[in-house]
Design a protein that fits this description.
This protein is 33% helix and 18% strand. It folds into two domains: 91 residues, 434 Repressor (Amino-terminal Domain) (Orthogonal Bundle), CATH 1.10.260; 102 residues, no CATH class. With 269 residues, it is of the alpha+beta class. Strands 5-4-7-10-11 form a five-stranded antiparallel sheet, with no helix packed on it. The longest helix is centred in the middle third of the chain and has 35 residues. It starts with a helix and ends with a strand.
């Protein structure tokens, strides 16, 4: 003869199990577990349930359940109700939990594999069909092809000015750049020596009786005109001329003589 309740309690405490954990794993309510350990068997639904709970609880704790059932029969067995109820044993919940955990892990693995396959397909498509970029047409000057540019083009006044183009790609303006190496006066007119005075980029008004320009202040003067440009220079030796991005030689003329500048070059006016 041995103590059923104290044996079960000692086995549970050795395994550091609380009542809540035991109930979660065996599906036996906590009040019935306490009743088994306190041997308050009258709290349980009946002898058949008591024996089923004893066997299940003992085997859950790693014990042999049959001696506990035999001990209970020897002390509390009621032969009148022995055949009225089938044997009841609570099945631990650890196996269903383990199966659910395995299914969840399998689902996670399948989702990860599907994501890897999708990413691989996207990479293959990207390699087989690379994105295309719109071609940039070259800008043509009077003397050749200007470099390709991307994005927004900002115009600026410099010694090399790309002439603008009209409809159909035809050149519509004459771009003249006067580069100064020293002080000189400049007079510029459009179309002829008696044509209208030209206002150069940067605000230099070169019409009328001419304008003295200091190379240390205005090293370059850019003129844009739809007609040939006529210029008179106070010191031709201090001025070099670029037309359409190409430097041209000035004719040997006296100071103040008119020089015609057009797409073909510089000529005596």
């Amino acid at each position: 003869m041995f103590e059923i309740g104290s044996s079960l309690r000692e086995a549970r405490e050795r395994r550091n199990l609380g009542y809540g954990q035991v109930e979660a794993d065996t599906a036996i309510r906590t009040r019935y577990i306490r009743a088994l350990e306190d041997e308050d068997f009258h709290i349980l639904p009946g002898p058949t349930y008591t024996k089923g709970f004893l066997r299940a609880y003992a085997e859950y704790l790693g014990l042999d359940g049959q001696p506990y059932v035999d001990e209970f029969n020897s002390r509390h067995h009621d032969p009148r109700g022995a055949a009225e109820h089938p044997s009841i044993a609570s099945r631990p919940r650890s196996q269903p939990r383990q199966r659910r955990r395995q299914r969840r892990e399998s689902n996670i693995v399948m989702i990860a594999l599907a994501a890897i396959v999708a990413v691989s397909c996207l990479v293959v498509l990207a390699l087989r069909f690379p994105p295309t970029h719109p071609a940039t047409l070259p800008t043509t000057t009077s003397g050749g092809t200007a470099p390709k540019t991307h994005g927004t083009t900002t115009s600026s006044t410099s010694s090399k000015t790309v002439p603008s183009h009209g409809v159909g790609g035809k050149q519509s303006k004459l771009h003249v750049v006067l580069s100064l190496s020293g002080s000189t006066w400049i007079e510029a007119r459009s179309g002829s020596t008696s044509g209208p005075g030209i206002v150069a980029r940067g605000g230099l008004n070169l019409g009328g009786a001419g304008r003295t320009v200091d190379a240390t202040i205005d090293p370059t003067v850019t003129i844009v005109s739809g007609k040939p440009v006529y210029v008179a220079l106070g010191a031709p030796g201090n001025v070099s001329v670029t037309i359409g991005g190409h430097r041209v030689a000035l004719p040997h003329l006296a100071s103040g003589a008119w020089i015609r500048l057009d797409k073909r070059g510089a000529h005596a006016g």
